[in-house]
Amino acid sequence: MIKLIECPRDAMQGIPGFIDTAIKAAYINQLLEVGFDTIDFGSFVSPKAIPQMRDTAEVLELLDLHDAKSKLLAIVANVRGAEDALQFQEIDFLGFPLSVSETFQQRNTNASIEEALKTVEAIQNLCEAKGKKQVVYLSMGFGNPYGDPYSPELVAEFVEKLSQLQVELISLSDTIGVATPDLITKLFEVQIQAFPQIEFGAHLHSRIESIPEKVLAGLKGGCKRFDGALKGFGGCPMAKDELVGNMATEVMIETLEKEGYSLGLNKSELAESMKLTKFVFNS
């Protein structure tokens, strides 16, 4: 079964003008009608770092989760953020960005990789105590622009460390859109075979024309969990000045359905969500 994770948080976080709380909530409520597996809806991080997400708790209070099929995921960058997020029973997953690149780990969370791994362990313990799950995003998982060491073997070392911490969900993340189809297939194939107890996802950034080949490459490697954002909005504001957008969800859906996958989505609600992006993002 294919799992689609819709990421309005990632789509919104780099927008310079503040999006009104009520507008954010209305958009996420509309997305909840579509039937995505999970909605990455917000983050509990420093408002100085990501000012767009400073109202995540308020947005959550405005969500209509009655009969919602989708689970909720919130990003955190430290233990304090995890503790804040875990106060809300409605949140199912906490996402933490662990980078393969030392430079990006410092830029993104103001911590070293060694310190970040300790944070992962602490968050994992908190999640287990609360009956929640942690999703670790391996940022710069397909290469980095800083000249830091990178290899598929290095990724495997990180996965091994996360496996020892009992992390069960890892999303391989192409933060700057450099992944090639061959590398995507290879990484997923090797990791999935080596760590069958872990569910691997793909959080890729891409130019629109490259999305189908990247989805197919992930499928070939055994990936069944894909992150995206409608119309490809978003990108990591901590990565580079020129943002490479998220995988456009509608393109992923078209690609997957052409491959014969039934995604169980409400297409009329999806169309309404697509219309709403023009209002939310002023596109």
From TrEMBL:
GO terms for molecular function: hydroxymethylglutaryl-CoA lyase activity; metal ion binding. Gene3D superfamilies: Aldolase class I. One of its GO terms (biological process) is L-leucine catabolic process. InterPro entries: Aldolase_TIM, HMGL, PYR_CT. Pfam families: HMGL-like. Keywords: Lyase, Metal-binding. Residues 1-271 form the Pyruvate carboxyltransferase domain. Belongs to the HMG-CoA lyase family. This is Hydroxymethylglutaryl-CoA lyase.
